Amino acid sequence: MATTGSGAWGIRSIPDQRGRTAVVTGANSGIGLVTARELARRGARVVLACRSESRGSRAVERLLAEVPDATAEFRPLDLADLGSVREFAAALPYERLDLLVNNAGVMALPYGRTADGFETQFGVNHLGHFALTGLLLPRLLAAPGARVVSVSSGFHALSDLDMGDLNSERKYRRWIAYGRSKTANLLFVHELARRLGAAGAELVAAAAHPGYAATNLQSASARLEGRRGAERLMELGNRIIAQPAEAGALPTLYAATAAGVRPDSFTGPSFLMWRGAPARSWRARWTLDDVAGERLWVASEQLTGVTYEFPGS
Predict the structure, then answer these.
(1) Which of 94, 178, 212, 254 is catalytic?
(2) Which protein family is named in the record (predicted)?
């Protein structure tokens, strides 16, 4: 997976994307912005779906400064508010969608709740994207060769889901909650791929993770809580240890564009799941559990009110 005929798979390996429309969530910075920029550079029409209008608009300006002939636009999307998710899907003017990159996320935040009462990390990282994908599913099914790519994390290994406490109401540990939300991302892809296969649909559902990439995600929690020392430590780690966001985006770009990407695949950096060219990534056995995938799916439909409609159903 990590190599092509001319060497390791990289930015220049991305095939022509002209005629394709892509939505990238959380595209205002980090790997989301790199993903949107490189898709646009290859000719895709890209929608940067971001919570903040000011940051989203600035991201479009940055993208167009680097790729002047790009077709890119900002549209507001707050994954912590299912009303916003529904508004985004209803307002999206394109009848077909070739690529949905479920990239946005939050990491290790203090306990909080979304607008709909869900624990923030589970609500944003999983439920918001579950609802968004379901609402956009008819447009994805209408586009030959379409893909859904969900960005998980190696931190999914911290914890399996607690199906009896999806919102961490009994006990909240921020890193365990984060790991569970990333496990949910992988279980979602597993179950979505299974259901698409059973329906005979061409749409490919795959997952990726960036390894340790230098983004704003690591220091966001410390910044919100005013823990300046922890924030500086995270920033130092980004400078010394992490790979740049451009490299961190490669697994996502691979899963989104490379030939032969298989349903329910999980792509990450080749070296110790940390850095390097895209390669098949290890995943915990619980992310391949059909029973758990089905239970999470049913719970997610009940919690979000979004029901998926597959061909022939």
Answers:
(1) 178
(2) Belongs to the short-chain dehydrogenases/reductases (SDR) family.
**Other CB atoms within 10 Å distance of the CB of residue 276:** 18
pLDDT in tens, 153-200: 999 999 999 999 999 999 999 999 999 999 999 999 999 999 999 999
Task: Extract the tokens encoding 291.
Answer: 């029973």
pTM: 0.90
Q: What are the φ and ψ backbone dihedral angles of 277, each rounded to 5 degrees?
A: -65, 155
Alpha-carbon distance 176 to 133, whole Å?
25
12-62 residue pLDDT tens:
999 999 999 999 999 999 999 999 999 999 999 999 999 999 999 999 999
CATH tag, 17-210+248-304: 3.40.50.720
CA–CA distance, 192 with 205 (Å, rounded to integer): 7
Place of tokens 């349903």: 263
What are the structural domain ranges in the chain?
A: 17-210+248-304
Backbone Cα Rg of the chain: 18
Tens-digit pLDDT profile for residues 272-295: 556 678 999 999 999 999 999 999
- Judge whether 308 counts as a catalytic residue: no
End-to-end CA distance of the chain: 34
Strands (E) in 203-243, as ranges, are 204-208
Q: Judge contact between 99 and 256, C-beta under 8 A.
A: yes
Q: Are 47 and 99 in contact (CB under 8 A)?
A: no
